[in-house]
Description:
Pfam families: Sulfotransfer_1
Mean pLDDT: 93
Number of helices: 15
Low-confidence stretches: none
Number of strands: 6
Strand content: 5-15%
Family: Belongs to the sulfotransferase 1 family.
Bound molecules: 3'-phosphate-adenosine-5'-phosphate sulfate
Domain Sulfotransferase: 37-231
Helix content: 40-55%
Strand order of the largest sheet: 4-3-5-6
Protein name: Sulfotransferase 1C2-like
Shape: globular
Number of domains: 1
CATH topology: Rossmann fold
Radius of gyration: 19 Å
Order of helices and strands: EEHEHHHHEEHHHEHHHHHHH
Largest sheet: 4 strands, parallel
Distance between the termini: 33 Å
CATH superfamily: P-loop containing nucleotide triphosphate hydrolases
Keywords: Transferase
Amino acid sequence: MTQVRKKPVYQDIFGLPMNISFSPECVRGTIQYKPRDDDIFIVTFPKCGTTWTQHIVHNILSKGEPFESFEDFQIRSPFMEMLGPKTAEVMPRPRAIKTHLPFHLNPYSPKAKYIYVARNPKDCCVSFYHHTKMFPEYQFTDGSFDDFFEVFMNGENDWGDYFDHLLSWYEHRLDSNVLFITYEEMKADTRAAILKIASFLDQTYKDLLESDEKLIDKILYQTSSDYMRKHLNEQMENFYCNPVFHRNETPEGIKYINEYFKNQKIEMPNEMKFVRKAAVGDWKNYFSAAQSKLMMERFKEKTRGTDIANLWPDMFTDVTGN
Ligand SMILES: Nc1ncnc2c1ncn2[C@@H]1O[C@H](COP(=O)(O)OS(=O)(=O)O)[C@@H](OP(=O)(O)O)[C@H]1O
């Protein structure tokens, strides 16, 4: 008998599966948003290092000032599909906007800047599994990794197919207004990655960091996984797990989510472990040999004719390291 798998719940917006509590208006508004010349976008497929990059960019732009709270983080580096495009009007500048859209749907201007962060699909899948279990609106809190693996392989998770997303931005990796970087590169030499991002934003930021050893050390510290695990997780817990989430003066996207939670009688989560392992290679603790093989086959099939595999030289090893 074939096993019936548990699946998270999504809505369809513009052909993309999406978190059921998100406002379709906010997603539509994001796709239709006309970027300003000084807009910086941090674009990723979910769970590929978005939040880390948002913190790095914010620390560079603010010369080492951390976000004060989760509300501050949302105002200064808004997640546009979630909060709505109006947030870009009120955000202080220069600041970065987060989106998860594939290239053809992302608001585009040749003058705006785009930082695209890619991550090995196996680690992305594991991280996405934990994310989907953590947020109650997916109704997947008791889902298993095997359940989610199938969802991921079918491109049924939020923002759709991992490979289509990656390919859509990889094509633009050499555009002068795009910085294409991997999570693994950032982990291997975070200092170099911070300087690379600073230089992409403006040479003056890089010059400043190179002339001020204390500042770059401060940024490294404030964007480290240990620091963010302590501070961001606590800030997110305060936001999501208590009534602050229900405040009325929040952006339109949050109001929509609040209403959705209220109407659908969805319980708030009890804890928010958003910054989790923050490591490269956690997939080895989850993937079976068969799942690893399936992912490798899908990787080869989807990226045929490109040199994307060079991004992750160990992509074609199985759980035993062969
Ligand atoms: N400072 C820092 N350093 C390294 N890694 C970090 C950091 N902060 C967050 N993370 C890890 O990034 C993963 C979450 O990805 P995203 O921020 O893209 O998630 S989201 O799409 O915005 O929901 C998630 O990865 P996993 O630990 O593998 O689940 C986070 O732990």
